Amino acid sequence: MPPSTLVRSEHDVLVIGGGVAGLTLALHVAGTRRVTLVRPASDDQGASRWAQGGIAAVLSPQDDFDAHVADTLVAGDGLCDERAVRFTVEQGPSAIEWLLSLGVPFTRDTSPTANYPYHLTREGGHGARRIIHAEDATGRAVLDTLKHHAQTHPDITIRDDLVAIGLLADAQQRCRGARCLDSRGQLQELVAGDTVLATGGASGIYRHTTSPHPASGEGMMMAAELGAELMNLEFQQFHPTCLYDPDGPPFLISEAVRGEGGRLLSTDGRRFMLELDERAELAPRDIVARAIDAEMQRTGSPHVWLDVTHLGDEAIRHHFPTIHAHCLKRGLDITRQPIPVVPAAHYSCGGVATDLDGGSSVPHLYAIGEVACTGLHGANRMASNSLLECLVYARSCAAKLATQRGPTTPPTASTQPGAGVVEVRHVQQWRTALRDIMSRYVAIVRRDAGLDTASHELSELSREVQAAFESAAPNTALASLWHAVRLARLTVLAARQRRESRGLHFNPDCPPHTETGLAPRPSRLHLDDLFA
Ligand code: SIN
């Protein structure tokens, strides 16, 4: 594309990503500042939609903040930032009230003994019933409600024709907006006072994921290109129970299924969690996913079973209508048969290091939701704390943005894009190679030798992708891959540097953190560390 055709436009607050975090932020900022929301149609299928279980918050009179804080710290295996945990937990009830005021159709509790008007379910790691939900499709219900309000708000402009591929900076290295591609492949520069990344995590660097359109660390790398610090990348969460359905689309079997009494069985019929942890199926996710992985290795089976048949037909249809209907469509009646399940990449606990207002280490660049690392999750996220985090930090970030105006300096010129052509099939092959390397060597169990192999193979891959990226005309698939490959390399580096097993980072070559005597330490990396 010749430089003369570059389209440049001016914006006040630019939000990149339209899941629960991005939409919540847009709705809170609108009214004080104008918002441009870059929200490609694929955001409707992103991680927010698949957060089936619900939103954790202290809502029942029998629950309290200290208990939610304590459960989160235990699940995070000693690496949470307690200040971020307490902040998040204490903001939970007002965030839920806001969603109720918008009309999110949370499931009511109609039983005569109910002590809160909405049904609260349980999930792994939670010592109390504290998860408010809309049947078994909470993410979808919240997303649809927020989208409806954003679409009709006069201060919000939604750009569904653009995909962001990089950020803009001024001469002082302050963020000044984003470089996007439109549907015809034309570059557009959206110059903005403040820029908020709400682009999701990095599960897409793995072969099997719980969402059909996972992000691949694009937002993390766009921030890193501007010098932002990335934190805790080695803690990639695998959800224990994705439907094992080799011919079907990825489909999550919510943790609420275990919360309501679902039992995990090996293919030879053992309820293995009973032997491993006193919390059994409701142990934190890292523990359950690892146990399933070990059972699959032991039996040689590609899945284990999740059995709910004992809950009865009526309870299953009442609590899990979406899961029941999906499985039935795939030929499985979960009221009569156990569900084959397998762990799959689900959530990135690491990301752009941020403060309690979503601020990154780059001035005027913010990150909220899964792309961010606030310190809430530590080494392992507790179930249903993710939508809570999206809401709480979107609201605190919006409050901060309402008090300021971004700079007006011009962005520095972007590098001249190439004009070459790269074949789609090559991009697909490279992406498959990336996912294979990560799934093989950097998954639920990782070892030093495997991490070294991954590091070597990713450097080779990176060289090929970089050459294509620098010579080809801008294209969204290649830009996403280029971000994903570097994010994968940083993830391997973080994993190799951690000399302990902790939470989601389980390396049999390293002792459990309880045996090292070392103080808990988050990992912090910059893009430059790849070249150190
Ligand atoms: C689930 O319903 O199990 C997913 C929600 C979450 O990841 O917290």
UniProtKB/TrEMBL annotation:
Catalyzes the oxidation of L-aspartate to iminoaspartate. Belongs to the FAD-dependent oxidoreductase 2 family. NadB subfamily. GO terms for molecular function: L-aspartate oxidase activity. One of its GO terms (biological process) is NAD+ biosynthetic process. Pfam families: FAD_binding_2, Succ_DH_flav_C. Residues 503-522 are annotated as: Disordered. Keywords: FAD, Flavoprotein, Oxidoreductase, Pyridine nucleotide biosynthesis. This is L-aspartate oxidase. Residues 431-511 form the Fumarate reductase/succinate dehydrogenase flavoprotein-like C-terminal domain. It is found in: Cytoplasm. Its main location: cytoplasm. GO terms for cellular component: cytoplasm. The lineage of its organism: Bacteria, Pseudomonadati, Pseudomonadota, Gammaproteobacteria, Oceanospirillales. Its EC number is 1.4.3.16. Residues 12-387 form the FAD-dependent oxidoreductase 2 FAD-binding domain. It is an enzyme of class 1 (oxidoreductase). It catalyses: L-aspartate + O2 = iminosuccinate + H2O2. Pathway: Cofactor biosynthesis; NAD(+) biosynthesis; iminoaspartate from L-aspartate (oxidase route): step 1/1. Its cofactor is FAD. The keyword Transferase does not apply.
